[in-house]
Every structure is written in structure tokens, then in C-alpha cells.
């Protein structure tokens, strides 16, 4: 009986699953959730399994990385970033998500400086994109809700300073 060489499978599996998770993750970051979201979750599980298999089959080489300060620093920085984004940061949400929720809930007058623009410029950008805006005290979340949109669409529009083409409600 022929034995299976796991080394032949682990690296290509990590590369393939990693590419899919990276591309679908970027798509989801920019608001394209369908049809990739469910596939991203399942391929993410396959990616985790492929990483475990890769670690098992290449353990001797990986041990060498744990002796290098740069490698330890990179792993440590990524672990801290992951902890920040996943661990609860209080009542308002988790890490960066909680921060984004605060921006979405703040009045436009307070949000404008974050985008390095005046309140009038922010109002104009939103109105030119087709959003109905009542005034500078309205929040991104309330404007999105009133226009049948999502806050992330408005934030993306503001980040791109009005050049996003798919932001119109």
C-alpha cells in the first residue's frame, strides 16, 4: 500500500485556501458579502485545518522561527492585533467594530474632522451621492437607515471623498 506524503498536500492547501480567504475577506471588507460570505466561513475552516497540517508536517523548520526575534515580534504583533479585534472592549462592542459603531452613531459635525473635511463638505458629498440628509446633527447610521442603505456604504463614500460609484442608495 502506498503512503500519502502530507508535505505534498499541506503547502498547496495553505496557499489555495489562504488566497481564497484573503480575496473573499477583502471583498467583504469593502461590502461585497454575497455570495462569498458563506464560502469564506467554510474555506476559513479548511484554511485552519490546512495550517494545522502544514505545522505538523513542517514542525522542525517552524521551531527555528521561534528562536528569531523578528519572527517572534511579527507573531506577537499579529496575536495582539487579533486579540484587540476579537476580545470584548466593553459594552459598545468588540475592538475595532466598537470604534466603527461609535463613528456611525456620532453626529456628522463630529465625524467630519476624521475625514479631514468640513461638515459642509461631508453634507455636500452625501447629498451629491443621492442621500437625503437633514443636517449636521444627524449620524451616519441614521442617514443610512433613512435612505435604505447601510452605514458602511456611507463611510466608504466619505473615505473615498465622494468617488465611490456604488454608494448611491
From TrEMBL:
<feature type="transmembrane region" description="Helical">
    <location>
        <begin position="39"/>
        <end position="57"/>
    </location>
</feature>
<feature type="transmembrane region" description="Helical">
    <location>
        <begin position="69"/>
        <end position="87"/>
    </location>
</feature>
<keyword id="KW-0812">Transmembrane</keyword>
<feature type="domain" description="Flavinylation-associated cytochrome">
    <location>
        <begin position="10"/>
        <end position="59"/>
    </location>
</feature>
<protein>
    <recommendedName>
        <fullName>Flavinylation-associated cytochrome domain-containing protein</fullName>
    </recommendedName>
</protein>
<keyword id="KW-0472">Membrane</keyword>
<dbReference type="Pfam" id="PF14358">
    <property type="entry name" value="DUF4405"/>
</dbReference>
<keyword id="KW-1133">Transmembrane helix</keyword>
<feature type="transmembrane region" description="Helical">
    <location>
        <begin position="12"/>
        <end position="33"/>
    </location>
</feature>
<dbReference type="InterPro" id="IPR025517">
    <property type="entry name" value="DUF4405"/>
</dbReference>
